[in-house]
Amino acid sequence: MDPVMKPLLATLKGAKLERPPLWLMRQAGRYLPEYRALRAEKGGFLELVNDSAAAADVTLQPIRRFGFDGAILFSDILVIPHALGQDLWFETGEGPRLAPKLVDATLKSLTAAPQRLSPVIETVRLVAATLPPQTTFLGFAGSPWTVATYMVAGQGSKEQAETRRFAYRDPAAFEEIINAIADATVTYLIDQIDAGVEAVQLFDSWSGSLSPAQFERWVIAPTVRIITKLKALRPNAVVIGFPKGAGGKLPAYAREVGADAIGLDETVDPIWAHANLPEGLPVQGNLDPLALIAGGAELTDAINHIIDALAGRPHVFNLGHGILPDTPIAHVEQLVAHVRG
């Protein structure tokens, strides 16, 4: 379909529309009763990800319910360490676990298992075959720094202290991990694109924990590596970079990495972002997920502030981070109705 007919894809390519297109991070997930029912039936999150038909259904659930302008692939950023050879499982109520932890083991000790990504690529094919023609299909991967924090520590943490210590203590070994993630990510994103996604997002959820010099080395440089290689192999690839928590380092990221659009988290003042990011660069964001939970006049005011602040450039309306599980469906309906005017 002509991208002009796909508002989200057109905006990511630089078109400034009268009203911003809309999708939400984690829009396929726990706030939807139909998702909770399917997950209970399948037995767990990873089981759902690896069941291509079920994962395709989850990807499409929010499109059927809300008609968002973008559908994002239902998967997880940790499928890359799983494909690099770490064991992956989810502890109930506690989140993901990876073993062996690379703070205790070397990258060379892992046996790569790229076939573990096959169910995800099959999900892409299934969704691409059934998505409404006006809806843009988004793929994604985790950025190397964020993925590495899980690979080194074996689980998530608030300050990523163990991984930051490792990166200072043995930067050569850490760079090897970062490069392995980056190169596997390029292959993975190419496979997603070839199977039917039309744009991809790089999630750097933990980029805010780094000093400026470390941010340059472990966030910007690996992202440049991914985007440069991806666009060399797939020149039409469209990439959204989302360095959560980057704050004042956001303009440098936007100038240097080569992304087609930049995601703003909820802590970024959209007026500041418009003044400091490269002119004409599409931006995405950045409603506070808690404002969506609040609903009512607070939600309306927050939506208006973001739309007004970013009216001078291509803008994709989104949250500043993922939608929360206790978000009322009625508030999402309010958001969609108001953004669409």
Structure write-up:
- The protein has one domain: TIM Barrel.
- The chain contains 15 helices and nine strands.
- With 341 residues, the chain is an alpha/beta fold.
- Strands 1-4-5-6-7-8-9 form a seven-stranded parallel β-sheet. A two-stranded antiparallel sheet has the order 2-3.
Observed structural traits:
single chain, 341 residues, two-stranded antiparallel ribbon
Can you describe this structure in just a few lines?
This protein has 15 helices and nine strands. The protein has 341 residues and is α/β, with parallel strands linked by helices. The chain has one domain: TIM Barrel (Alpha-Beta Barrel).
Determine the N-to-C terminus distance: 25 Å
CATH architecture: Alpha-Beta Barrel
Q: Would you give the CATH topology?
A: TIM Barrel
State the helical fraction: 40-55%
The number of domains is 1
CATH class: Alpha Beta
Mean model confidence by pLDDT: 96
Fold blueprint:
Layout (H helix, E strand, L loop, with lengths): L6 H6 L20 H10 L2 H5 L2 H15 L3 E3 L6 H6 L2 E5 L3 E5 L18 H13 L5 E7 L1 H10 L7 H9 L1 H25 L3 E6 L7 H22 L5 E5 L6 H7 L4 E3 L6 H7 L6 E5 L1 H6 L1 H14 L5 E5 L9 H11 L2
Parallel strand pairs: 1-4, 4-5, 5-6, 6-7, 7-8, 8-9
Antiparallel strand pairs: 2-3
Helix pairs in contact: 4-6, 7-8, 7-9, 8-9, 9-10, 14-15
